[in-house]
Amino acid sequence: MKINMNAVKGITIGTIAGVALGTAISFATDIPEVQTSHSSGECVKVINFTESDTFTCEDLPSRYSHVWVK
After folding, report:
1. pLDDT band at 68 (very low <50, low <70, confident <90, very high)
2. Does residue 47 sit in the same domain as residue 69?
3. Are 43 and 62 in a shared domain?
4. Which residues have a Cβ under 8 Å from the Cβ of 69 and sit 6 or more positions away?
5. CA-based nearest residue to 67, from 48, 51, 49, 44
6. 27 — phi, psi (to 5°)?
7. What is the pTM of this model?
8. Is residue 41 domain-shared with residue 70, that is, in the same domain?
9. 31 phi and psi angles, rounded to 5 deg
10. Residue 24 and residue 19: Cα distance in Å, rounded?
C-alpha cells in the first residue's frame, strides 16, 4: 500500500496548527480582566476567570485584559 506523503504532511501541519490555536485561545481567555474607571483612571474591579487567581486592584497581575468602565 502506497502512502500519500502530501496527505501525511497536511494532516501533521493541520494538527500542529490546531493545537497551537487551541493553546493560544485557552491562554487568552484565562488572563484576568481589570476594569478601570474612565473618569478617574483608577482600578475599579479585577475579574479573575480561574479559581486559582486571587488578583485585586492592589495586587494587579503582570498580564491582564484592560476594560474601561464608567
Report:
1. very high
2. yes
3. yes
4. 35, 36, 37, 38, 44, 45
5. 44
6. -65, -40
7. 0.58
8. yes
9. -75, 145
10. 9
